[in-house]
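pls ignore typos typing on phone
EPZ + seq
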Amino acid sequence: MEQYIICGGNALVGEVEICGAKNAALGILAASLMTDETVVIENLPDVSDTNVLIQAMESIGTVVDRVDRHTVRIQAGAIHSCNVDSSYIKKIRASYYMLGALLGKYRSASVALPGGCNIGSRPIDQHMKGFKALGANVKISHGQIITEANRLVGSHIYLDVVTVGATINIMLAATLAEGKTTIENAAKEPHVVDVANFLNSMGANIKGAGTDIIRIKGVEKLHGTTYSIIPDQIEAGTFMFAAAITRGDIMIRNVIPKHLESISSKLLEMGCEIEEFDDQLRVVAAKKLQKTHVKTLPYPGFPTDLQPQIVTSLSIAEGTSVVTESIFENRFRYVDELTKMGAQIKVEGNSAIIEGVHRLTGAAIQAPDLRAGAALVLAALTAEGESTIDDIVYIERGYEDFHLKLKALGASIEKAGNEKDALRARFKVS
Ligand code: EPZ
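k done
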């Protein structure tokens, strides 16, 4: 089992390049199944979630050539099955995007129920409601979601909750439905907009993505395209908190500063300085961090995917902070691990009450999920002494070369795959 071995205490200083957005990539990869022509996707992050989805697409006959580490050429004209039941697809949440894509193109799809990070109950009722509104039959049987339609006909769909997944999935299916679809109370996340832009570049007619009403005029078919994925808001935000928690100075390159506004505004309240440029942003943390309060919300609110990173940063801030999680009910599981490092955090319902401590101390901890795993790495980077973080497979689902990027910024971090590696890594970081 791979682990990170970290010796904390170094301020992170330098520049870091942000990858393409994982959660946009997952929607875009699935959407590329909807044309018989060649699609080239650039700025694709090389992380296990995207690689698993690519394997699943290959398992049904899609041809995927890796042009270079961040570019793939996809040919989905020879798909031989709309039944995706490979064991690996169950590991990722975004497998459900294959439902919308295949239903739209082939009027039939069957995909194993999605897995993904264990951050609370993750229903898919809104996805099913959307497909049904378009005229599809949807059922769950033997662990598969099966959806079929003779015709898909545009419809008016009001989402009961703001959901990124259902917004994208319905948009995929509706793109090739007959007539007009309106999605009301749609998610506005940057990756929803990116998937819409990608579909439009293939000939779709989608308007309003990025607002809460998306209007789609169905088209008969989609054509090939070359498309570059937007930068990853959450990876960028994670490095912003890495600068804050280590009292560092990081220039974060290849970002869209607008997507980072909710994060910048919290870091300013916490006493950091932020400098914005066209496609880069600098975070300087010269002073001790200060308390703040925050509630996670759909975009443009503060993202749930950065909740563990802000809680971790506030654990060493001056004063008492309250962080409320309003998207997923079980996203404070990492707090027990932070407590092992000396943090004083009490979880009450969906809020964490954080009494800032002077400093954290290194410990042996486990990554419970992707974002919490990244947050625990940040904790270890500021903690006194050595930490080991197990289960880093979660972190690698969504962060490309995480430890290498941190190392280039001056972190003492090594990755170890076995006992012998671990001994060597301990020697290197100490
Ligand atoms: C996406 O998950 C992301 N995953 C998550 O990122 C992210 O945390 C989340 O959006 C919120 O931004 C991918 O894009 C692959 P939702 P998703 O549907 O689509 C409820 C990461 O770390 N809901 O927006 O599954 C749901 O329970 C991951 O990169 C329903 O009630 O999230 C939640 O409370 C973790 N019924 C809320 O909506 C539904 O049918 C938002 O979920 C669907 C969702």
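DSSP finds 13 helices and 24 strands in the chain. The mean pLDDT is 95. more later
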